[in-house]
Amino acid sequence: MTPPSPSSPPPPPAPYPSPPRHPWGRFFGHLLGAYGLLALTALLFLAFSLALPGTFPTLDNVSAVLSGQSIPAMLALGATIPIATGKFDLSIGYGLGLAHVMTMQLVVAEGWPWPLACLVVVLGGAAVGAVNGVVVEFAKIDSFIATLGTGSIMYAFTGWITDGARIVPGPHGLPDAFTALYDSRFLGLPVSAFYVLALTAVLWLVLERLPLGRYLYVIGSNARAADLVGIPSRRYVIYAFTGSGLVVGIAGVLLAAQQQTGNPSVGMDYLLPAFVGALLGSTAIRPGRANALGTLVAVTVLAVGLAGIGQLGARFWVTPLFNGSTLLLAVGLAGYAARRQLRQRRTQPSRTPRQPPGATP
Length: 361
What we know:
This is Sugar ABC transporter permease. Residues 342-361 are annotated as: Disordered. The chain crosses the membrane at residues 31-52, 64-84, 114-136, 143-161, 186-207, 236-256, 268-285, 292-310, 316-338. This protein has 361 residues and is mostly helical. It has a single domain (38-340), classed as ABC transporter involved in vitamin B12 uptake, BtuC (Orthogonal Bundle), CATH 1.10.3470. The chain is 69% helix and 1% strand. It contains 14 helices and 2 strands. It has helices at 23-51, 59-68, 70-84, 92-109, 114-138, 143-162, 176-183, 191-209, 211-221, 223-228, 233-259, 271-281, 292-311, 318-347; strands at residues 185-186, 189-190.
């Protein structure tokens, strides 16, 4: 072995290893990061139950909360899919308004059978989502700008269809089977809550257990690395936006069954709560990445908080204040969770590769 030449720089000093954390500290830190939001939900419910013992911890109140928050929960789950790839779909509020107006237009004004109208609207939502994905990936437009532009176009179509007025059913109203999609009950609870649970289970299966979900997470973590390992990023990002549009179409049908009128301006009211739930959900269950169970927990926190402050007599401006503040908190916590996860990966000791047979040390 030849000695180093005098002109060669000295080797850098070896970094001092970071002191190992106690295993109990890591364990409790993981529990707090993964299930802290779930514990907060229980604490909020307990606090409001003690403050409002006659109205809050009742089956009627729970049913009202579940029914009123089902649409925001579905939109939050739909927004979670593109977020897993590092993209954002700001058109979901406009898409919800267009989907529910189209449902009312086809059933009331055009006289279509309601199952056919619902099917067309849901498939149309998926098609709009695919268009969003194509615009983002092939036109190379940032997802914020692209989906805001397509959302504005959808809002224009909504106004053109309704001419700025509401779509009101005739004297016979809507078919009972159609309104039962939202108004019926199962096991004593609103059936819409079980739609949310079913959608959460499907998204959890797709994102956590199927190759499609793993590909989406790899793309969201490092799109360049995904391309290098052979994952077609463009195709899977389009799949993510298509899934988001499909969920928005389903939510639009349910919103039409709930409100039973076509309101062209209703969709934007759901945009902020949906993103609050999706971003806050990325700090729970699987901190650092968007996940279906975390989104469900986050939406539950928001539902309990809004119901509690509403029954305490809060003014009308408290709800947007609560949503906006929670959104800022959610973004901050999501960024912190992602940075914490990255630091943990960097501080993990690397495995020494095994020597091939016959190699000399």
